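Renewal narrative, Specific Aim 1. Our central claim is that a sequence can be written position by position from structural information alone. The example that follows is taken directly from our test logs and has not been curated for this report. It begins with the structure tokens describing the chain, in the order in which they were read.
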């Protein structure tokens, strides 16, 4: 059995927020008399909230870890269908369910995040054969706090200071870790602890991932006419519209200036186009105060086997440029434009 210090080292050694839940679960199941641990996060899509069990581990082995971007949202349990988890979230306190008598097996629920993180909601669900003692609860609280500290630190380093969206520098790691699956026995760079070359990364298979770009139309004119403060407020409001339009588990970016991005998993091109068109319409219909009417041009592309973040982004930007040349306030699919012959053979070959 590993020691507490060894697990603290593992928790604080990460540079990827997506692995923190699994590392926390492994520490708790290793250090405590638990039979099972479940980490459930609240996911939202179009105003509906559901529970995603992002990590589930059993002491006897087995369990699963879920990639939020690949989950079927409609298959998840609705938020209101688990009253005990809701009680834990709302009270921000421990909830215990003794389902076979006061001294028997029980489920102990604890909020995963603190009150200072309203945008994140999650529950730590501990299954044990008996009541967990105060020493166990003290250890749990310590590991939860370390998890929260690391989560906040890593998120801050990945975020754009003005909008709160992910920054461009965080795209590459997300692209390779979320989009591409290993083939031919190649292990993940994260698990091997070494970087891989582009040629190694390209010997992998994408699974219905899409990279999109969005640019505010005539943004330099907004800044020129209304000043930097109003222009920055437009950026912040567009970022908030993005956050409320796309799904909780879509990765939203501010690349630079007035350029934004989305990395998402979706089985159908038409659904991706619908999502970007909904975002475009939401921006157009929003009242931006002093800036008046603001619109965006959007473009997206499917991630191909040979794509890198730079090549996929270049294709999505081609679609944005096409939308702008057509007057702006449009959402375009790069693949759709190639099929219709707008970019010609050269563009198709470089995609």
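The sequence written for that structure reads:
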């Amino acid at each position: 059995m590993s020691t507490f210090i060894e697990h603290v080292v593992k928790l604080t050694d990460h540079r990827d927020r997506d692995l923190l839940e699994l590392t926390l679960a492994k520490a708790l199941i290793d250090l405590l008399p638990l039979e099972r641990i479940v980490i459930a996060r609240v996911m939202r899509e179009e105003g509906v909230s559901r529970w995603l069990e992002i990590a589930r581990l059993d002491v006897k082995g087995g369990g699963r870890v879920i990639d939020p971007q690949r989950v079927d949202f409609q298959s998840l349990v609705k938020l209101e269908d688990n009253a005990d988890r809701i009680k834990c979230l709302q009270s921000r306190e421990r909830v215990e369910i003794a389902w076979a008598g006061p001294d028997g097996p029980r489920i102990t629920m604890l909020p995963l995040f603190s009150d200072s993180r309203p945008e994140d909601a999650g529950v730590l669900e501990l299954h044990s054969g008996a009541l967990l003692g105060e020493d166990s609860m003290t250890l749990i609280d310590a590991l939860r706090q370390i998890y929260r500290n690391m989560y906040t630190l890593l998120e801050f380093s990945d975020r754009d200071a003005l909008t709160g969206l992910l920054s461009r520098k965080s795209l590459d790691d997300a692209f390779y870790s979320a989009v591409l699956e290993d083939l031919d026995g190649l292990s993940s760079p994260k698990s091997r602890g070494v970087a891989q070359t582009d040629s190694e990364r390209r010997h992998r298979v994408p699974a219905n991932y899409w990279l999109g770009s969005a640019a505010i139309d005539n943004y330099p004119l907004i800044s020129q006419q209304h000043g930097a403060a109003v222009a920055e407020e437009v950026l912040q409001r567009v970022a908030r519209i993005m956050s409320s339009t796309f799904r909780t588990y879509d990765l939203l970016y501010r690349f630079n200036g007035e350029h934004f991005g989305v990395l998402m998993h979706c089985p159908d091109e038409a659904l991706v186009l619908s999502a970007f068109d909904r975002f475009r319409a939401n921006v157009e219909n929003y009242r931006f105060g002093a800036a008046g009417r603001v619109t965006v041009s959007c473009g997206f592309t499917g991630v191909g086997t040979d794509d890198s973040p730079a090549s996929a982004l270049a294709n999505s930007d081609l679609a944005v440029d096409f939308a702008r040349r057509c007057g702006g306030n449009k959402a375009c699919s790069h693949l759709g434009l190639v099929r219709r012959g707008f970019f010609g053979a050269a563009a198709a070959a470089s995609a």
